[in-house]
Design goal:
This protein is an alpha/beta fold and 360 residues long. It has helices at residues 51-57, 107-110, 158-161, 167-177, 194-206, 220-226, 238-243, 262-267, 289-292, 306-318, 333-341, 353-356; strands at residues 11-18, 25-32, 39-49, 74-81, 93-96, 99-101, 121-122, 141-145, 150-151, 186-190, 209-214, 231-234, 248-253, 268-276, 297-300, 325-328, 348-352. The protein has 12 helices and 17 strands. The structure holds nicotinamide-adenine-dinucleotide (NAD) and zinc ion. Residues 23-351 form the Enoyl reductase (ER) domain.
Length: 360
Amino acid sequence: MAKSPEQEHPTKAFGWAASDPSGVLSPFKFSRRATGEKDVRFKVLYCGICHSDLHMLKNEWGFSTYPLVPGHEIVGIVTEVGSKVEKLKVGDKVGVGCLVGACHSCDNCANDLENYCPKNILTYGATYYDGTTTYGGYSDVMVAEERYVVRFPENLPLDAGAPLLCAGITVYSPLQHFGFTKPGMHIGVVGLGGLGHVAVKFAKAFGVKVTVISTSTSKKKEATEHLGADSFLVSRDPDQMQAALGTMDGIIDTVSAVHPLLPLIDLLKSHGKLVMVGAPNRPLELPIFPLLMGRKIVAGSNIGGMKETQEMIDFAGKHNITADVEVVPMDYVNTALERLEKADVRYRFVIDIGNTLKAA
Ligand SMILES: NC(=O)c1ccc[n+]([C@@H]2O[C@H](COP(=O)([O-])OP(=O)(O)OC[C@H]3O[C@@H](n4cnc5c(N)ncnc54)[C@H](O)[C@@H]3O)[C@@H](O)[C@H]2O)c1
Ligand SMILES: [Zn+2]
């Protein structure tokens, strides 16, 4: 008979898990593996709440397994390293994002793109090499192979830096890959949530012009005065949208729900690129004619490889880029998820695991 989550491994661990697609979390005892020779063990101090956690908790993508301990914006302090660990030592500040494994023999892995390895292993709700289930960062301790652990820049605060592990790399990678970093470019960011607000900060650090595209004016002041966006476009205002037609080189779309793409495609110049990073649970309608008429591209992008994740966080350290966070106690997590569903967060919830996760 399969072992229970509590018996699979030698080390006791404690976190919060959902037991079914209601997605409601409650305290949960499980176990972590012993620190292998290439592994890094760390005490979790903070973990961000990504909208993907919400999709997964509610099984909106159809591949969730329960019990599910979410969390893939995990930061903490190293407490033990295996004998073959080379770049990290006890006491270091580290982070783990969405990935904890991959095949390491395919073309994607050879090109530092573990994020596109067909056999990559997600930080939670996946099956690890040894057949056990992976559990995420809404928990007291984490063990991961060194390849999947990033060194956290000394100058960045751990709480506001945690969201970089997913939100940060998810927007940094397409900005780089699709060439949205060249000065003089005009980039749109759709959806000013966890991913979107960090996209504005990275794009500004690259020196491009940034327009936030939002359904309402409610975030205009913050976007332009606080986050540094150059302009703000209300997608429900036909006059504003008309005036902005054909003005953008690229758009990063972070929207978590089904929404129309035509108005966004129309904002692109010829050869412009609309890059989807938001992951709605149902297909979107893709109008073809407006693509043909300007040789435009619609693309997708999924987090980033480990080499690029380290590059991203080092870049963030250099430019002092962090997320704007609401730090909340562990027992607030269900309320935080309800608020996230209503986009009622400025702009990322981060759970204070170190101070508020109390073993039952
Ligand atoms: N591609 C990847 O690698 C990757 C990584 C992380 C997250 N994601 C996905 O990105 C999406 C966003 O994640 P997040 O954590 O930033 O979420 P979030 O909830 O913080 O932000 C989503 C934003 O979309 C806006 N929005 C929601 N419905 C909308 C609609 N119908 N029209 C316009 N705007 C709408 C919300 O107001 C909010 O500002 C999620 O689907 C998440 O799963 C993808
Ligand atoms: Zn995420």
